[in-house]
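[Automated response] Your request has been received and processed.

Submitted sequence:
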Amino acid sequence: RGDFVTSVSVGAVFGQLLAFRFAKWLGAIAGPVRIAEAGAHDGSLAGDILEWLAANDEPLFERLTYSIAEPSVKRRSWQAKRLAKFAGQVEWHDSPADAPEIRGVIFSNELLDAFPSHRIGWDAAKRDWFEWAVGCRDGEFRWEPIDIDGAAWRSLLPAWPSELLDVLPDQYTTELSPQANAWWRTAADKLAAGKLIALDYGHGPDDWPAASQPDGTVRGYSDQKLVDDVLANPGEQDLTAHANFGLAKRAGESVGLQTEQFTTQERFLNGTFAEMLKTAPALGQAIDVRQLQTLTHPAHMGCPFRVLVQSR
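Generated structure:
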């Protein structure tokens, strides 16, 4: 059992609804098309998507290649085993940069939050940002402020107005991930035509600092339970921080993508389900509604999880 409950672990409905949505998008592109997934883990989501397309859209399935960006040999073996029946249509690359140009859909699910993040804090007296580093004193790990001129994260600092900075609490903390930002830009560069989409929990493009999160969003999880001390038991718990969709949005737009949609997972999946019921009632009636309710419940995955869609 993993440390997190994920949309994929809820059941096949998540992949089925994504497959329906992707099919609608891919139907507008002539010729061979690709679905490119990054962060495919054991291949379960890829399997759910391919199973649905093979059963419900054979013409599209026949012109489809499923690409997986996966640097891990171990995870590739998991994926190959799960996707053995689709071996002729699945290919692997170390990263999006190594893949051919994509005419189709590039997507990730709960990937952006997995990149390393810099934990930064606000010094109200200096009116400047610093980074929280991890030090060790008296045999315990502790957060310690450091100031590094020219740090890579400084280019990603939010352009908050001076009126907000005037009242921002001292040591207010947030996170920035240059690696996640670079990954999104690389994926955007690879998209020749189609959609780039991320599903993750995180901050919206226009979100202001949350009064309820003055210490940032770094969290630890173990056995599906929240851990208070993220520095305790290193290597024995999963650490994560919210994805920054504002940075992803700007990175995509900087290389010519158009932002089509930024919404909650609740609205995205319920909207997809409603369209399925309207245009293909039999397919909609086959959807497991209990799984859908878990994925879209506002207090669980429905609102904390967001969806960003960009296109070229």
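Summary generated for your ticket: The mean pLDDT is 94. Residues 265-279 form the longest helix (15 residues).
If you did not submit this request, please reply to this message.
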